[in-house]
Amino acid sequence: ISEKRNADLQSMMQEFHYADIAEIADELDVDEATYLIKLLESEKTSDILAEMHEDIREAVLKNLTAKEIAGELEELDTDDAVDIINELPKEMVQEVISEIEDREHAKHIVDLLRYDEDSAGGLMAKELVKVNENWNVLTCVKEMRAQAENVTRVHSIYVVDDEGRLKGRLSLKDLLTTSTKTNIKDVYIPKVDSVTVNEKGEEVAKIMSKYDLEAIPVVDEVGRLVGRITIDDIVDVIKEEADKDYQMAAGISQDVEADDDIWVLTRARLPWLILGLLGGLGAAAIMGGFEEMISKHAVLFFFTPLIAAMAGNVGVQSSAIIVQGLANDDLKGSISNRLIKEMLLALLNGLILATLLLIFTWVWKGAFTTALAISLSLVVVIVVAGLIGTFIPLFLHKRNIDPAIATGPFITTSNDIFGILIYFSIAKIILGI
Amino acid sequence: ISEKRNADLQSMMQEFHYADIAEIADELDVDEATYLIKLLESEKTSDILAEMHEDIREAVLKNLTAKEIAGELEELDTDDAVDIINELPKEMVQEVISEIEDREHAKHIVDLLRYDEDSAGGLMAKELVKVNENWNVLTCVKEMRAQAENVTRVHSIYVVDDEGRLKGRLSLKDLLTTSTKTNIKDVYIPKVDSVTVNEKGEEVAKIMSKYDLEAIPVVDEVGRLVGRITIDDIVDVIKEEADKDYQMAAGISQDVEADDDIWVLTRARLPWLILGLLGGLGAAAIMGGFEEMISKHAVLFFFTPLIAAMAGNVGVQSSAIIVQGLANDDLKGSISNRLIKEMLLALLNGLILATLLLIFTWVWKGAFTTALAISLSLVVVIVVAGLIGTFIPLFLHKRNIDPAIATGPFITTSNDIFGILIYFSIAKIILGI
Fold first, then answer.
1. DSSP class of residue B64?
2. ipTM field
3. Which of A156, A308, B351, B414 is the most buried (most CB within 10 A)?
């Protein structure tokens, strides 16, 4: 399609939403995508760039001059512009910024670059509508009109004092129904939720979704209004957070995708597999220690994968519930209560499973004592696995370490080792060897 | 605190946001929470109820009369009211609805009750601002003012024709800057994204976050505007979806929380554990089939937990990446390309891990041939595990089954069995027994 029929392409693309064009561009190769971006007017292409897949955008940006990139950034809200600048090679950032013609916009971008990407400062945009508490309604409306031109969507009108400190917000309704001479001081709503620039993105997400906010103002350390965060950025934070926890639970570090190359994927996956390998070697060493039992009770050794699997599964289940509860902030009560509950739960599950196992093994192998030894160990293994799975994430959380790392191979591996140790120890006692 | 100091409590609670009071209510026992709810005015309590934890809300609602509940519902938007009605016992629903004084509101609620909770119809609210394309700006503004009273936040003004079919939307800016005699027909924007009532919540979430929408109109099968969904409801859908996938991966069916009681948690966890048990029994049976190798090569049996763990880990890793790619809609290309890529990736990881294992086992046990047999099997096991982990979710997705069920114990269990079978078969060939 992309074979020079410019006019057709242009009119075709006119019809599409920029998010759809971004999707199309993601499927093209880099040269075609660059061609497409250069073809369309920059008002649309800037939005397309903002929506495109990071990797492809990075490649396309390499094909554009600093001036072209600056032109695109000028059309974007400051928060999206900063996201794109963060992907540019360092030596190019300076050049691109100096090419931005709107100096106000450039200054805002430079301000925003200071903040950590995952903080409220890194998420916020400079575009907002603010009015001074000492103005009257008439001045206010005039100023608002000028400011609103730069703001895509007006969520709230923020009220600040002479030093720029956030005082409250103004409802559009009140503004339109009061006399033009009224002072803003007398009509604004002094209650407004806000976050400081250093607040973590995750926390901002929690606050916004708890209070059902669509935008939240951001203030600096002394309370001056410096930006605002809108809900669409927060939706992305929530999704990334969920993806991260999910990957951790599956034993994948770093944020990878199915389309990343093999080296990136290996780097994310191999460390956890090595951990699993070490765990397996540990288990092998433990079994080596019980080698003398092999001649009389070979069947015990056949059940080690079962014991390891059950220990791993129970550990993952109980840790996942705790990790999720911590993430959603709805864990109440003390650690010891949690542990007691998990113990009862594991005991219940363990007894049911052990009974099934006992009946099955007894019928299959005919050796009741062996079957009993295996089943009893299973109960203990499950209880211990449940307790470890509950305790480790709570412990990590107390120490301010992300408990999500505990759900994956970490729990599975440690539970494998403990499980097999417990299993053989108990079996040895019961079988009296 | 809750010991009768009503006046103090009332003035204290006045200061709090309803979401905070809801959190406090969640921590109280049911009687105290009921007491608190009855104490405050219904404008606030209805919001508190809507934000409270489901289980506690259900208990509190049992203590209220149908009339009291109806009073609360009257203050709520229709979508939140429907959520609460869905929790009431069936015999009470009729009574509560008949107690709602505002008949219009009651009718809307009854309309919404028809839809599946997870569909666009179940998520939408009836509160919206709509104008007829044949009105002029003046009528339109008057009508809007009346309608806006019932709508907490006006996101868009929707334009419909005489039959109520959605035609487009109107920008507030245009409305204020055109003459009052202009017909709406001439100023509205005919392009508007919408979803139909039967669209799945998940799909609505995808559309809204792709186009960064803050509200989306919902139409029925013939295009008539019937409601609108706001982004705050979608944030909840996204969170639930992520939580569900995460729990599935951890082997927990149903939506459970750490604070649910032991029976509920057992019901969610036990089925997956039984699956694991059966897998373990399968593995034991396979090992029983290779029993004759135990006298000469006992060490092979010590490595079974390692093999099972590696097969499980690799399977979970590769399936998690696929499941996440499917959920985010960014998997492109054919299944066979995916499988080839995963094979190369698993081969790379497998060779690195096998080399480590070979060196370690050789040094430890001194038997090179055995060490080689174990390591070579490990490579094959990892490759097969990776392929199974990639194929199963893709296959389930093609068959319209949620691929998330494949990430958890399902993959682990089948990989355990295959892994051990492959391991012993290859070892047998190499060791020549």
1. S
2. 0.76
3. A308
